[in-house]
Amino acid sequence: MYRGKLDIIPCTLYTLPSTQMTRIALFASGSGSNVENIANYFANNDQVVFTKVYCNKPDAFVLQRAAKLGLATRIFTKEEFSGSETIVQELLDDQTDLIILAGFLWMVPAALVKAFPKHIINIHPALLPKFGGKGMYGMRVHEAVVANKETESGITIHYVNEHYDEGPAIFQAKFEVLPTDSADDVAHKIHLLEFEHFPKIIEKLVKN
Ligand code: GAR
């Protein structure tokens, strides 16, 4: 297994309400390998409850993974997400403590950030602020990293604010990009780092 050199950014972890149980909503748009990895990591942890997997794409593979994992799902429209407060209200009704964006590609509307300040966490497949912003997601990021002949790339886990990929960073880990690496190779290395670190960072946030 590839192990990149770790760079941990010193930062404040904002405290979650000190209840016994943390109710987590997962948001995803695509394959959902991170959702599956996170769900498996916490499978035997009775302090964490996954309320629902929220998804904006009715044909996304994450929905099949969620069904297999026994997780409830909620497919929503753009209007429900950012044209109204439907989803904000559902998250509040569900008594959500923490929102995890695990491969979620829409920008989070201001109303949602306002309802859950410092309680929305995103993972981005690059070393932000590099290769972030609108249109920079998934394979597009890896293709840009290779085209730019970057010598390193990595992951960033960060708080979400109203601007794409600009919230304060919580954690970064990086690896060397070899001259022979394709975008697929970079994607593979990214996923290994994500699988290893994302659940552990969530666990840290939950424990704080
Ligand atoms: C992950 O690599 C995640 O970092 C990225 O999408 C991929 C989803 O993979 N997120 C973004 O690009 C957000 N801007 P998955 O669906 O297999 O978890």
Describe the structure.
This protein is globular. It has helices spanning 33-41, 61-69, 78-83, 86-93, 110-115, 138-147, 183-207; strands spanning 6-7, 22-28, 48-55, 73-75, 98-101, 120-124, 152-159, 169-176. 38% of the residues are buried. It has an 8-stranded mixed β-sheet, covered by helices on one side. With 208 residues, it is α/β, with parallel strands linked by helices. The protein contains 7 helices and 8 strands. The protein starts with 5 loop residues before the first strand and ends with a helix. The protein has one domain: Formyl transferase, N-terminal domain (Rossmann fold, 3-Layer(aba) Sandwich). The protein binds glycinamide ribonucleotide. Glycinamide ribonucleotide binds next to α1, β6, α6 and α7. The site of glycinamide ribonucleotide (GAR) has 17 residues, from α1, β6, α6 and α7.
Written as H for each helix and E for each strand, in order along the chain, the element string is EEHEHEHHEHEHEEH
Number of domains: 1
- DSSP strand content: 15-25%
Rg is: 16 Å
Average pLDDT score: 92
Number of DSSP E strands: 8
Report the span from N to C terminus: 30 Å
Helix fraction, binned, reads: 25-40%
| CATH class call | Alpha Beta
Individual helix count: 7
| CATH homologous superfamily annotation | Formyl transferase, N-terminal domain
- What summary fits the major beta sheet? 8 strands, mixed
The CATH topology is given as Rossmann fold
**Poorly predicted tracts of residues:** 1-8
- Distinct small molecules: glycinamide ribonucleotide
Q: How would you sum up the global shape?
A: globular
Q: Per CATH, which architecture?
A: 3-Layer(aba) Sandwich
Structural class: alpha/beta
Order of strands, widest sheet: 1-8-7-6-5-2-3-4
